[in-house]
Amino acid sequence: MDRETIYEGLVRRGVSRREFLKFCATTAAVLGLSSSYVPQIVEAMEKKEKPVVVWLHFQDCTGCSESVLRATKPTIGQIVLDIVSLEYHETIMAAAGHQAEKSLHDAIKKYKGKYLTVVEGSISQKDGGIYCCIGGRSSVDIMKEVAKDTAAIIALGNCATFGGIPQAKPNPTGAIGVMDLIKDKPIVNLAGCPPNVENFTATLVYYLTFGKLPALDRLKRPLFAYGILIHDNCERRGYFDTGQFAKSWGDKNHRLGYCLYELGCKGPFTYHNCPTIRWNDGVSWPVMAGHPCVACSEPKFWDNYAPFYADSNSSFFAKATKIGLGAMAVAGLTKKENKE
Amino acid sequence: MARLVIDPVTRIEGHMRCEAVVADGKVKDAYSSCTMWRGIEVIMKGRDPREAWIFVQRLCGVCTTVHAIASIRAVEDALKIKVPRNADLIRNLIIGNQCVQDHVIHFYHLHALDWVDVVSALKADPAKTSELAKSISSWHNNSATYFKAVQDKLKAFVERGQLGIFSNGYWGHPAYKLPPEANLLAVAHYLEALDWQREVIKMMAILGAKNPHPQTFLVGGMAIPIDPESQNAINAHTIAALNKYADMGIEFVEKVYIPDLIAIASFYKDWTKYGGNSNFLACGEYPEATGKLWLPAGVIKNKNLKEIYPLDHKKVMEYITRSYYTYSKGDKVGLHPWDGETTPNYTGPKPPYEYLNVDGKYSWGKAPRYEELPMEVGPLARVLVAYASGHKEVKEVTDMVMKKLGIGLNDMFSTLGRTAARGVIALVTAYKIKDFISELAANIKKGDYTIANTEKWDPKTWPQEAKGVGWHDAPRGALSHYIVIKNKKIENYQMVVPSTWNLSPRDHKGVRGPVEEALIGTPVADPKQPLELLRTIHSFDPCMACGMHVIEVKEE
Q1: Which of B22, B357, B384, B454 is the most exposed place for a label (fewest CB within 10 A)?
Q2: Is A128's CB within 8 Å of B8's CB?
């Protein structure tokens, strides 16, 4: 039997044509595309078969899956039942044990060369892989087996992209990201701890619409989500430029929403679209709620961007006192490097 | 005798393996194993205690927030920081919101499929499902047309042949007892709960900046400011929004979760006979203005509800006799977390493997014991301790649920009791959230905008050495973090978490952990389809990322 198209799936689930078009338009906006692309997205959704997705969990906390559960455009129900055919996902699948392993093996055999692989969590290489085993097999073995016949891999979250928290010093388990192990497959890195689900759905839609993966930076992150520094889109940027800073938690400046740079904000060094798409359906994001950015979409942020708070003892504060041009030059440098 | 292996155990957080010995249709013995380790405690050493919460929050993204809360409390305990009431209230709201959302997700998305046969829902008469729905609740989605539409969607999904997440379930298993109509009702609410969980958690997103992994916690208070005259702080908009999501929580738990729980459980009352434990530990939660905790702490031994022992962290010891670690004083001793050691010592089979060596070490999880006893933690422990302590709200709701099910307090020591207790906690917490919002609003009205105590923010104000404990009764049970601070840095960081208690392997005396013990005697109709084991395992709501990637560290 032919697999149904995404649009058929949505109609079957009672989504109106109007809602469907709205979804396509929103997606175009997240992708940073002009409205002229909307018809192309609509057409793709109407005609493309649902892609088969295999979702692997390694050294993870399931926070990336939880983030995906908060999807709004489309919702998680739509993603799981209509947009993709999710053949393997340990957190939500009905099957367990041997039956679960059967689902995985059936999928990679049946959809050889066609399935998308989503990876959550880092891969543990040290000591023959003993620190992460599923069904009695190591994460290295499983990753290699599934990668062999996959069309592409989406590494979801900071652990799968760059090694994440398991890789923080001293990296006790030899944790690595997917791209450190798999060299011969297209990989998209959706960094963030956790990643924002809107960027995940937009990547899927991009792939379905344009038949290819989005343009990436040198760290394999899509430019549509990681192309601009947080600092450059931050709603508090004006306060930074005029030198108005929150100095202490709950002081008048903090309450008024002044810049958090002197409290340790890493927005000037972090590529992510938090300020524009925000979190949980646009409700908030860390700077908006009053807490500094911790650079969670950057490689090795646990080591390279800590201490996360600035105080008179930290080297970060020394930098922060040279506000304005000095800091902007640092930000500019980072940016240039990133775009090479 | 059959040796049965479930690996991966799915619909849990993380990587769990269960091996069981089955004879004459019953479980004779069981072994619970965690198959993954990240070594986060090793990573914590030498870092700034003020940012420990950002790291350890990443232990788990399902019970997001819980490790952050325990961490800031541990540091505040060590540095003797008193947190302003507003900060406690904001934390209580985040904790409560997490608890209610998490319990609903557990019931529908992680546990329900052990009791609900999705395929059977196709045979249901939607009109009869509607009658059933109306008889148990006034929830608005209750018409025959509505259930017909859900059934049609499901039908089309199944007929398409791509079952996705529902493929290879144990559909048609003889242990499924619900009539098709009840199955259809549950499937409809499985889908509704998917939408609800995303909305209701916006309370946390407002106060915590995002979910999962909110980012406004702070040692000494909270980083989200309060100012009714500012548009960048908690203001009247915020209070209105918090009330909206609080009401959304109450409505769903009251009208969907609890009625479904009772309706489904009434077909499975034989599950009051299986899955029980004898010892329980709750650490209490929700600081009140009086300084007391709203839900009480306490320890129950040998099912004796007449005596509730006070909780004392000094009585907690961890054993590694059957875990993949070694202690410098030998593998038979127990260590208090402040003196804990983490030296991995993997003696298990080389992957790929078929069976674990269950006669030796077999898990990355340690075996925590309280006065040498294994302890069940989680909603059932919380309910039993509160009930026995005469907690008004918990007693009322528990009595209501027991009455509707026609069961008694002794029946609560079971798989069914554990699943029912989770519903009780969700409901009382959903109501309590409203009180916290009112109190926060009243404080703002009085002109109290304080969110943080910053007296000890500067490390220069700290003593050379300090030790602290942070408790948090998380959705999955009592959680404790232990910190030793030396020269402004983390010297030792340790965590004893709910799933370490519940899924612990055997200890130095060979005594089983709570899940292992609970599995003994479970009926197994077909060892190739061990649905019944999953019921008891899932009733504990295991969270392996928390429980088993977590071991304390003290490097020599």
Answers
A1: B357
A2: no
